[in-house]
Amino acid sequence: MAFGSRCPACGEGNLFKGFLKFQEECEACGTDFRDEDAGDGPAFFAMFAVLIVIIPMAIAFQMVTGVPMWLELLIWGPVIIGLCLFLLRKLRGVMFNTAWRRNAREVPAKDMKQ
After folding, report:
1. Are 97 and 2 in contact (CB under 8 A)?
2. 66 partner at 20 to 30 Å CA-CA among 36, 42, 85, 113?
3. Mind spelling out the 3-state secondary structure of the chain?
4. pTM of the model
5. Which tens digit of pLDDT belongs to each residue from 31-87?
6. At what angle do helices 41-65 and 69-101 cross, to 10 degrees?
7. What are phi and psi of 16, to 5 degrees?
């Protein structure tokens, strides 16, 4: 369900209404998503995963071919951006579904003890 971007409650409805914007409610079961958020975690994990894979490839490519730096940026820049955008939506769905399944909700500041 998470990688398929489906509702965590029923597994049927679409989780997103845009590229990264969540639906207000599930179109299949009516579950309310207005108070839910995946936070910044998906962006961090997407960048981290992509760069762990791409940087060694870029270094090896540079060592083998010896191409100029401008060509390296021209090649690897779009690859990094494209993979990050692809993973961002998937990981946003995963983190949303994980938080939903664990009943993790944001605690309002007024309810926190000091």
Report:
1. yes
2. 85
3. CCCCCECCCCCCCECECCCCCECCECCCCCCECCCCCCCCHHHHHHHHHHHHHHHHHHHHHHHHHCCCHHHHHHHHHHHHHHHHHHHHHHHHHHHHHHHHHCCCCCCCHHHCCC
4. 0.76
5. 887 777 777 888 999 999 999 999 999 999 999 999 998 999 999 999 999 999 999
6. 150
7. -110, 145
